[in-house]
Each structure stands twice: as structure tokens, then as C-alpha cells.
UniProtKB/TrEMBL annotation:
Species whose genome carries this gene: Puccinia striiformis f. sp. tritici PST-78
Protein name as catalogued: Uncharacterized protein
Source organism superkingdom: Eukaryota
Length: 350
């Protein structure tokens, strides 16, 4: 009888919180759909292991031959972690159990943090696997092929859709705070992956290689219609994303037809550009102004002062001896961005 009454109370509480309960149900359904697709992709990679291993070795000579087994293990962990957090939130919304405060704090602080770390590993340590799918499974972006031949095709952006939707889930249901979203993108590998994901989503959703004609990612009209956590990113994180995009564009613009945009292609000529060195150079005025910073030309941002030697270093890294028309346009876009957001005065030193 007591259990029956508790059950009725739980249902009543869920009804009072039906918006959050419905959101959890929607996330669970979407995750389940993507998990089926990702499992098929892992199976496809396993069937083509010889070709996959060769492609991975070419892309990353230090990669491990155990990558496939590790990605499956990590994928299983992520699924279980999502299930735990979803069920915990349902119990709290239904007031189903009286959880001691210290246990509740331990769960709500450690479990989301562990899931974030798992997601980061999933997409950064296995990005070469997912690139194999995009390069080896034709077409790369199949939405526009469905109606042509009526055949099922793997959707190769699913692993990234899944990973970034998890961050949306954690943010929307208050497992992580807004400022923690920015912390996720302190790692250059995560910045590279969000850039790759955004470029490929634009390409897929718009139906053409729109990145070739763009001077930024985060001001594009399609940006706000993608992931919820994008709106939680500060100017600092947005600057990083646009910087990495523009340098990646410079490295990819003269690629072979059908080549995959990859922000890791950051070698200008034979020199890798250490863009991470310039991370964190954009700061808002609501923070303390440190020595060496000055007001920027647009009034509400501040910039570190680069000495002429450092500006020459940046120019030397980014300007190759020869470049065609398309690469010249990329260079103009990149230096215009750096002039405004990172390094005022760099254009006058060209």
C-alpha cells in the first residue's frame, strides 16, 4: 500500500514537471536512434578493418591498432552514463526517493563530469575513425541521396551529432553550468571537432560547400539553429572557433575535389601554425584589465599587445611564398579577423 501511494505521488510530481519529463523522453528517444546508427557504423568499420587501419595509420602514424575495440568500449560507457543521469533526474522530478544530500551532491557533480570527459575522448581520440567513415563510405553527406536511390545509407555525422547533443542535454537539465560549457572548449582538439562538425553540418544542411565562401562560422545565420550549447559560449570561445575555422579554410581551400574539410589541416606550406598559442587573447571588459592590455578599436573588447617580432612570427607562419586567388581571399579574411579580434596593427605590418 505504501509503495502504491509513493507511486501515485511520483506520477503526480511528474505531471507537475511535465515539460522537463517530456524533454527527457525526447532526448532519450533521439539518443536511442543515434545509438543504433553508431553501432551500425562501428560494425561497418569492423568489417572493413584492414582498409580502416591503413587509412588511420596514414592519417595518424602513432594511432593504436586497438582503436576499434576502444571506441566500442567507450561508446558503451557513454550509453550507461546517459541512462544513469536520465533516471536520476526522473527520480528527482518525481521525488521518488529521499536521497541523502551528500550522496546527491556526489552523483550530480561527478557523473556529469565523467560523461563530459567520456564524450571528449569519444570524438577527439576517435576522430580518425569517423573520418574514415566520411571518406570511405560514399556519399559523405547522404541526405540528398535518399530520394535518388531509396537505399539506406549511414549518416556519417551521427557520432558528432550524438556527442554534441549530449552537451545540450547536460546543459538543459542543469547537470552542468553555462561556464562549464566554455571550459569544455579550452582544449584545441575539442575546438577542432566543433569546427569540423559545424562546417560539415552546413555543407549537409545547405547542400553545397558553403565554407569556401564564408569569412566566419559563428555569425552565420545557421549557427543559432544548431546546438543549444552554442548560445552558452562566450566571445572568447567564439573567437577560438572562428580562428580555427579560418586557418583550417586556408589549409583546405586548394584540396582535391571531394576532399573532406578538416581543421587539423593547419600546415601552411611545410610549417604547422601553432594557433593554440593565441587562444585566450580575446577578453571582455567585465574582467580585470591586466598589464599589457589595451582597449580595442571596437570599444568593448581588449587585446594583448603583440610586439613587432611576434607579429612577424604570425605573418611568417601564415603567408606562404606562393598562393593563388582562392588562397589569397582566405588570407585576407584571416588577417582581417586577427586585426579585429586578436592582433590590432598586424595588417599594417604586412
Amino acid at each position: 500500500m505504501l509503495f502504491h501511494l509513493k507511486g501515485l505521488e511520483t506520477i503526480k510530481n511528474w505531471d507537475l514537471n511535465q515539460d522537463q519529463v517530456a524533454s527527457l523522453r525526447e532526448y532519450a528517444a533521439q539518443f536511442a536512434e543515434w545509438e543504433v546508427e553508431i553501432q551500425k557504423q562501428i560494425k561497418w568499420l569492423g568489417k572493413n578493418k584492414m582498409n580502416v587501419d591503413r587509412m588511420i595509420t596514414q592519417a595518424s602514424p602513432n594511432s593504436s591498432p586497438q582503436a576499434l575495440s576502444r571506441v566500442q568500449e567507450l561508446f558503451n560507457e557513454i550509453k550507461e552514463q546517459i541512462k544513469v543521469l536520465k533516471n536520476m533526474r526522473l527520480m528527482l522530478l518525481g521525488a521518488a526517493f529521499d536521497i541523502p544530500e551528500e550522496i546527491f551532491r556526489l552523483i550530480t557533480e561527478s557523473s556529469p563530469r565523467n560523461l563530459v570527459q567520456s564524450v571528449k575522448k569519444f570524438i577527439t581520440e576517435n576522430n580518425h575513425l569517423f573520418n574514415c567513415l566520411a571518406l570511405g563510405f560514399v556519399p559523405k553527406h547522404p541526405k540528398f541521396q535518399y530520394e535518388k536511390d531509396q537505399q539506406y545509407r549511414l549518416y556519417t555525422l551521427t557520432p558528432l551529432d550524438y556527442a554534441f547533443e549530449i552537451i545540450d542535454f547536460l546543459l538543459e537539465h542543469r547537470f552542468i553550468k553555462t561556464e562549464e560549457v566554455g571550459n569544455i572548449f579550452q582544449d584545441k582538439e575539442m575546438v577542432e571537432q566543433v569546427v569540423n562538425y559545424t562546417v560539415r553540418r552546413y555543407e549537409n544542411d545547405l547542400g553545397f560547400c558553403s565554407w569556401k565562401y564564408m569569412s566566419n562560422l559563428t555569425k552565420h545565420w545557421h549557427w543559432q539553429s544548431m546546438n543549444k550549447f552554442f548560445r552558452a559560449l562566450s566571445k572568447k570561445e567564439l573567437d577560438r572557433i572562428d580562428l580555427v575555422f579560418l586557418i583550417g579554410k586556408l589549409g583546405c581551400i586548394d584540396g582535391l575535389p571531394g576532399a573532406l574539410y578538416d581543421s587539423e589541416v593547419l600546415d601552411i606550406g611545410d610549417r604547422p601554425f601553432p594557433y593554440e598559442k593565441y587562444f585566450g587573447k580575446s577578453n571582455s571588459l567585465n574582467r580585470l584589465v591586466s598589464p599589457g592590455f589595451k582597449h580595442g578599436p571596437i570599444g568593448h573588447w581588449i587585446y594583448p599587445e603583440f610586439d613587432p617580432k611576434e607579429k612577424d612570427e604570425i605573418i611568417h607562419h601564415l603567408l606562404s611564398k606562393r598562393y593563388g586567388r582562392r588562397k589569397l581571399i582566405c588570407i585576407v579574411d584571416l588577417f582581417a579577423f586577427m586585426e579585429e579580434e586578436f592582433c590590432p596593427g598586424i595588417i599594417s605590418q604586412l
